[in-house]
Recover the amino acids of this structure.
């Protein structure tokens, strides 16, 4: 259950990070693509009206009357789609000379009609027409005009007061770009899921390999534990053999205790032991040389095997050697406190219930 939860959390984390990174990158590219699209529309609009302006200039130079040139241009652009991109022509007074919608021909662009922003400044569109300058930018309308912003390029026709203008509806451009963005977004999310699933599978394979290594290590530790258990049994058997040799046919007091350090079996002479203690479930024997040995028997078992003339069970934590007792003090109410050399980690207390027994043991 824990492994399954870990896998699910890992997969969710990978998907979340991938989605955030993918969405951020896609939005960054979308913003750049939108600006590049507007720039491209400006350039293409400039190129279109420049070529159209050159054509009009050539017609005028060929002697064609201006009215005929205007009429021919109107016929060529009439009823073209004004929702996306179109071309029209004004004079410098702001009057529409040609427009795809014939109803707009003859109308005048007022000062508050719209503004053209570009090159770090913003001017009224009518002022741009009056100046006769070649300009490009974003044309914006007042809120009440109910018209979308446009990418506009204006080109003055030489020898006339005509101003050709190309228009590209910003709303339409953004709608097209947004549609493309949504397609890319859906594709990106699908790709993210596929990549995340692949990463999840790879990580799961790595986890499995790691778990195999851990299982192998645990198996090795279990073998070592089994080996130590076997060694403990051998030590116990050795102790029993020692007791049997010392007092054959009867229960004998121990003269030596068998323990080990790493792979070495060690025997400790009981006469060298100052006290035996129990701390944190570990039985330790401390010698007069202040050496510490870990024993495998309990205090009860040891007390039954040691010479009661020399060793005394002071309490649940200590067995003391009479030769190791340095001082005996009256402690609290009817209790005794023993000090040994070397000193024990904790005070060795004889409870009031055992004081009489302890004094008899001393007086043997």
């Amino acid at each position: 259950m824990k492994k399954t939860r870990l896998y699910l959390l890992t997969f969710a984390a990978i998907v979340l990070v991938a989605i955030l990174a993918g969405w951020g990158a896609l939005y960054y590219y979308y913003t750049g693509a939108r600006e590049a699209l507007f720039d491209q529309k400006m350039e293409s609009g400039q190129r279109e009206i420049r070529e159209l302006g050159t054509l009009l200039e050539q017609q005028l130079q060929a002697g064609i009357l201006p009215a005929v040139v205007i009429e021919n241009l109107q016929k060529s652009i009439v009823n073209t789609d004004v929702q996306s991109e179109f071309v029209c022509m004004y004079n410098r007074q702001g009057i529409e000379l040609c427009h795809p919608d014939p109803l707009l021909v003859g109308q005048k662009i007022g000062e508050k009609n719209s503004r053209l922003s570009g090159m770090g400044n913003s001017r009224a569109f009518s002022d741009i027409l009056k100046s006769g300058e070649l300009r490009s930018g974003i044309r914006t309308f007042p809120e009440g005009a109910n018209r979308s912003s446009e990418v506009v390029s204006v080109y003055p026709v030489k020898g006339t007061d005509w101003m050709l203008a190309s228009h590209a509806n910003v709303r339409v451009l953004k709608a097209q770009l947004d549609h493309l963005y949504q397609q890319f977004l859906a594709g990106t999310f699908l790709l993210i899921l596929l990549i995340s699933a692949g990463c999840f599978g790879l990580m799961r394979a790595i986890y499995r390999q790691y778990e195999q290594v851990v299982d192998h290590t645990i198996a090795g530790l279990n073998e070592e534990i089994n080996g130590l258990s076997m060694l403990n049994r051998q030590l116990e058997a050795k102790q029993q053999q020692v007791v049997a040799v010392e007092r054959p046919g009867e229960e004998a007091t121990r003269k030596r205790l068998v323990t080990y350090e790493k792979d070495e079996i060690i025997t400790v002479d009981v006469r060298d032991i100052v006290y035996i203690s129990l701390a944190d479930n570990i039985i330790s024997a401390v010698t007069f040389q202040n050496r510490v040995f870990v024993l495998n028997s309990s205090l009860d078992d040891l007390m039954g095997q040691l010479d009661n003339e020399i060793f005394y069970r002071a309490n649940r934590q200590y067995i003391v050697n009479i030769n190791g007792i340095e001082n005996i003090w009256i402690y609290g109410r009817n209790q005794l406190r023993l000090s040994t050399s070397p000193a024990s980690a904790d005070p060795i207390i004889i409870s009031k219930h055992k004081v009489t027994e302890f004094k008899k043991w001393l007086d043997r």
Observations:
- The chain has a mean pLDDT of 84.
- The helical segments are 2-61, 66-77, 125-131, 170-246, 299-305, 355-362.
- The first helix runs from residue 2 to 61.
- DSSP finds six helices and 17 strands in the chain.
